[in-house]
Amino acid sequence: MKMREEEKKLSSQKKRGKSIFKKRWVYPAIYLVCAALLISGIFWYQSKGNESAKKNFSYRGDNLVGKKEYDNPATEVSKTLENFKWPVKNKDAAKIVKDFYDSKASAEKQEAAILVYNGNQFRPNRGVDIAMKDGKEFDVVAAMSGTVIKVNENDSLLGNVIEIEHTKGVVTEYQSVKDIQVKVGDIVKQNQIIAKAGTSQLNEKAGTHVHFEIRKDNQALNPNTYFNKSISALENVKAESKSSASDQMNSDDQSSNSKDDNAAESNDGTDNSSDNSNSQNTDDSQG
């Protein structure tokens, strides 16, 4: 009897279930419930993502996960926006006293760009020598933002040297300086004072001045060509710089050969004088 009653109950429940699904509002109701659950899940996921983003990024938005503020590469972007400037505060008060040796320039300009030092030694000028028009001492500033990679305060020939790297392979060099105010590893900004102008044995005639160079891959470029231009202007100068460097080396060799020839001529003159003297003594003895 109990079994039959249970079977009747089960059959009645099945009939009720089938009758419910036959009603028109059942499927739309199920669809709405599922849609509500899906939308709730999306909102929950987004809220969790926002919380995670807040943890990973500071409110300033300039610190990435695992990065510190000084590691932010934004400074590199600012460098590309800068143009090379004269290494002096007031360009209008300054002048170039010895220009860059350009292998394509006229013979007259090339001769004017040769440095003569120690009486009889010659070297083509690989940068520009800048002095004040009134001849007074002045502050030397960074021509572009960068990192100091070299400071040499014991070079009497060049008059002390500072090198600043602006991007890989691009360096500005400042010679003939004193009272140096930076050290290796310092990050300097454009127009920041790095030293004072001084003197050097290499160009004593210039008096108080700064010798300024722009180099790419250790090859000297003409600063006059790149003043008021950005680093991007140096992208296609590799072949040109190598040619210029080769010409300068050849010029050095010619200068060195010229000195050797002069020395040889001097020795020949001494030898000839000695020979003439010996000849005269022989004639006297024979007489």
What does this structure look like?
The protein has 287 residues and is of the alpha+beta class. It has six helices and 13 strands. The strands form three sheets. Strands 1, 4, 6, 7, 8, 10, 12 and 13 form an eight-stranded antiparallel beta sheet that branches. A hairpin with an 8-residue loop joins β6 and β7. The longest helix is centred in the C-terminal third of the chain and has 49 residues. It is rod-shaped and about 130 Å long. It starts with a helix and ends with a helix. The C terminus is likely disordered.
What is the strand and helix layout of this fold?
Elements: H1 2-21, H2 26-56, H3 74-81, E1 94-98, H4 107-112, E2 114-117, E3 121-124, E4 128-132, E5 139-141, E6 146-152, E7 161-167, E8 170-175, E9 177-178, E10 187-188, E11 193-197, E12 210-216, E13 219-221, H5 223-226, H6 238-286
Antiparallel strand pairs: 1-4, 2-3, 4-12, 5-11, 6-7, 6-10, 7-8, 8-12, 9-11, 12-13
Distance between the termini: 172 Å
How many β strands by DSSP? 13
Strand content: 15-25%
Sequence of secondary-structure elements: HHHEHEEEEEEEEEEEEHH
The secondary structure category is alpha+beta
- Rg (CA only): 40 Å
Query: How would you sum up the global shape?
Result: rod-shaped
Describe the biggest sheet?
Answer: 8 strands, antiparallel
Stretches where pLDDT is under 50 for at least 5 consecutive residues are 57-75, 239-287
Number of helices: 6
Mean pLDDT: 76
Helicity, in percent? 40-55%
Question: In short, what is this structure?
Answer:
The protein is an alpha+beta fold. The chain has helices at 2-21, 26-56, 74-81, 107-112, 223-226, 238-286, and strands spanning 94-98, 114-117, 121-124, 128-132, 139-141, 146-152, 161-167, 170-175, 177-178, 187-188, 193-197, 210-216, 219-221.
